[in-house]
Amino acid sequence: LGRKVWLLAGSLGLGLWCLLTGSLRRSHDFWTSMQSPPCENLVYLYSTNDKVTDASRIDELVESQRASGKEVTVLRSDTADHTQLLRIHPQEYAHMIDGMLERARG
Q1: Which helix (H) or strand (E) holds 45?
Q2: DSSP bridge pairs for 71
Q3: In b/e form, how buried is each residue of 13-37, taking b as 16+ CB within 10 angstroms?
């Protein structure tokens, strides 16, 4: 019974927090804006080990962008935590950024 009470209290607290801060709306707005980025060449750097961002949603986004004809480059890690790709995979990260800048320069 104790665990159920804590889970219920946590869910209610999280729900109240989202309601008061507008977090759910911001999340919805973010994913909606990601569906129509203003450029044709896109770079996504993310990890399946990320506890903050859902990698499966980014996988879907990548496929959707590719299907719409956009050029999409991806660095997808299975080991890095949230925002840790540069620290865990510095060479791959630098290569991705260099490539992105080269394409932007034309």
Answers
A1: strand 41-47
A2: 41
A3: eeeeeeeeeeeeeeeeeeeeeeeee
* pLDDT tens digits, 21-70: 666 667 777 778 888 888 888 999 999 998 888 899 999 999 999 999 99
pTM of structure: 0.70
Distances (CA, A) of 16 to 5, 11, 13, 28, 61: 16, 8, 5, 17, 29
Q: Across-strand partners of 74?
A: 44
Mean pLDDT of the chain: 82
Task: Give the 3-state secondary structure of residue 72.
Answer: strand
Which residues are paired to 76 by β-bridges? 46
> What is the phi-psi region of residue 63: left when phi exceeds 0, alpha when psi lies from -120 to 50, beta otherwise?
alpha
